[in-house]
Amino acid sequence: MADLDIRNLHVSAEDKQILKGLDLAVSRGEVHALMGPNGSGKSTLANAIMGHPSLEISQGEIEFLGEEITESDPEERSRAGLFMAFQYPVSIPGVTVAKYLRMAMNAHREARGEPEVKLKDFRKQVEAAMELANVPREFSSRYLNEGFSGGEKKRMELLQLALLRPKLAVLDETDSGLDIDALRVVADGVNRYAGPEMGVLIITHYQRILHLVEPDFVHVMFDGRIVKRGGPELVTLLEEKGYGWIREEVEAAA
Ligand SMILES: Nc1ncnc2c1ncn2[C@@H]1O[C@H](COP(=O)(O)OP(=O)(O)O)[C@@H](O)[C@H]1O
Ligand SMILES: [Mg+2]
How many other CB atoms are there within 10 angstroms of residue 187's CB atom? Predict the structure, then answer.
């Protein structure tokens, strides 16, 4: 069985059915891309994977590492090794990057029954992670997400990735507003960290990022379901033909 195994997932929000029977399996060592037109339910899937409280799961299951997590709260999922980069990162007034990272790290340690990280060890680990994520030193004393550029927000996410070493990362990329610097940061991060220890699910409307990261598997969503699966060749096909033909295929099959 896959590390993340989603079966027949039906999700609604505010009485609106959004996911209508979705199956997806992602394992460590694999890079998956989830594509689809705006409104097809991509972000809802990401939120359902992380356990967003506003969503109602009416049918289906989500399993992670053999444990059923359909009803687990977001913290439990995060401790189990799921990581989600938010489409719109929040800024927390008065909290510096370093403080935030320490809080995140301690939450994970607490879950594993370990004591809080010693300041000296924390500094060492952050420095190593910053080097890996290619983040300048002074970044750690800035306030979280305050005045961050698109690229800096992405660097922040990578820094978390480098420190927390999740088993599966879900990266929901904005459809607009990601400049080329930000795209490169994300792509570098995925290319650097994706490996036998981590699986990645990149969610994107546009193909741009998939020129920098080659996914092993590509899934195309339409109206709450995955309607096409393939390899990187699907990215090229979508680039040439857009999403219109998928709609036609789905409607012809209905
Ligand atoms: N919290 C919510 N309440 C009601 N409708 C929602 C909510 N979140 C998303 N939707 C609707 O669900 C559909 C899918 O949205 P979303 O998952 O954001 O799609 P995508 O990320 O593919 O653009 C859209 O029609 C959107 O308006
Ligand atoms: Mg979205």
Answer: 19
Indicate which ligand has the atom closest to the C-alpha of 39.
Answer: 1
Largest CA distance in the chain: 62
Report the sign of the C-alpha dihedral through residues 6, 9, 15, 16, in that order.
positive
Q: Which amino acid is at 17?
A: Q
43 CB within 6 A, ligand 1: yes
* Dist. CA 96 → ligand 2 center (Å): 28
Q: Which residues pair with 56 in a beta bridge?
A: 12
- CATH number for the domain including 57? 3.40.50.300
The answer, yes or no, to whether any atom of ligand 1 lies below 6 A from the CB of 40, is: yes
The set of residues, in sequence order, having a beta carbon less than 8 Å from that of 25 and lying 6+ positions away, is: 1, 2, 4, 5, 6
Range of the structural domain that residue 8 is part of: 4-253
Sheet of strand 67-68, all strands in order from the earlier edge strand to the far edge: 16-26, 4-13, 56-64, 67-68
Q: Assign 31 a pLDDT band (cuts: 50, 70, 90).
A: very high
Q: Supply the pLDDT for residue 91.
A: 64
Query: What total number of domains does the chain contain?
Result: 1
